[in-house]
Amino acid sequence: MKNVVEVKKKDGETIESLIRRFSKRVQQSGVLIRAKKSRFREEAKNRREQRVDAIRRHKIREKKDYLRKIGKLDDFENTKFKTSRSRQNR
C-alpha cells in the first residue's frame, strides 16, 4: 500500500500556505498514524521462542522460591516499590 501525498504550488501561493496544505493532506491521508503504529511493532514469537521463555521464567521462579525458603531472599526486597518497612529491615 503506497500512499504518496503530492501538493503543487499554486500561482501566487506563499511557501507557508503550501506547507500548511501539505501538512493537512498528510494528516488526512493517515500516513503518519500508520507509520507511528508500525514503528515499534514486534512480530509475534513462534512456539519455540515462547517455550524457551516459559522455561526461563519457570527456572527463575523456582530459584527465587528456593532462596526465599532458605531465607536468602527477603520478600520486601522483591517488591517493585520499596516501603518504609523494608528499609527498616536492612
UniProtKB/TrEMBL annotation:
Top-level taxon: Bacteria
Protein name from the UniProt record: 30S ribosomal protein S21
Organism listed in the record: Candidatus Kerfeldbacteria bacterium CG08_land_8_20_14_0_20_40_16
